[in-house]
Amino acid sequence: MVGTEQTRLVVLRGNSASGKSSVAAGLRERFGRGLALVGQDNLRREVLRERDRPGAVNIGLIDLTARYALDAGYHVVVEGILYADRYGDMLARLRADHRGPTHCYYLDVPFEETVARHATKPIADDVDETLLRDSYRPRDLLPGGLETVIGTDSPLHESVDRIMFDTGLAHLPAIDR
Questions:
Q1: Distance from C-alpha of 89 to C-alpha of 85, rounded to nearest angstrom
Q2: Whole-angstrom Cα distance, residue 125 to residue 20?
Q3: What is d(CA 165, CA 168) in angstroms, rounded to the nearest whole number?
């Protein structure tokens, strides 16, 4: 078992440029100290400099990092593309082992919007539309209907508000660390 009955685990998934990192940053800003962000891109690209493939090392590192933070009393947001076929088993184990509430969200953005949003990112010159198309998976939902789907009709502040209230984070005090 991991975490406590009071810790919250939030999983944010979706295609590239769907708004996952922005929502995660908004949650951290709203909540304050005591909310750990476990970002797939940071651990996979920056820490390990690893390609996203089945069985990759970052899958275990994401799991270990989330578990460590939960055990230390932090609320945790795990965010990334986190393809269901590659990360689903790890996320299911993490969810099953977490003592507190776990909430999963899928940010659903059509491919055309993904391309438009991606053009504004710093890595836009390194990742072209062909690579985006190859990696795009429409509605790559986890099995079992675990995820709440948030579409492009939900502005950033509304998505953050919704998750803050759904998870109960809106009613919990920040942790002074």
A1: 8
A2: 20
A3: 5
Give the C-alpha separation, 5 to 61, whole Å.
23
Query: Helices 156-167 and 20-31 meet at what angle, rounded to 10?
Result: 60
107, β-bridge pairs? 14, 150
Q: Residue 20: what residue type?
A: K
Backbone angles phi and psi of 73, in degrees to 5: 95, 5
**Each residue's pLDDT tens digit, 94-107:** 999 999 999 999 99
Domains of the chain: 9-171 (3.40.50.300)
- Grouping H, G, I as helix, E, B as strand and the rest as coil, residue 108 is strand
What was the pLDDT predicted at 124? 59
The neighbour count for residue 125, using CB atoms within 10 Å, is 8
The residue that leads in pLDDT, 176 or 101, is 101
Other Cβ atoms within 10 Å of 139 Cβ, number: 11
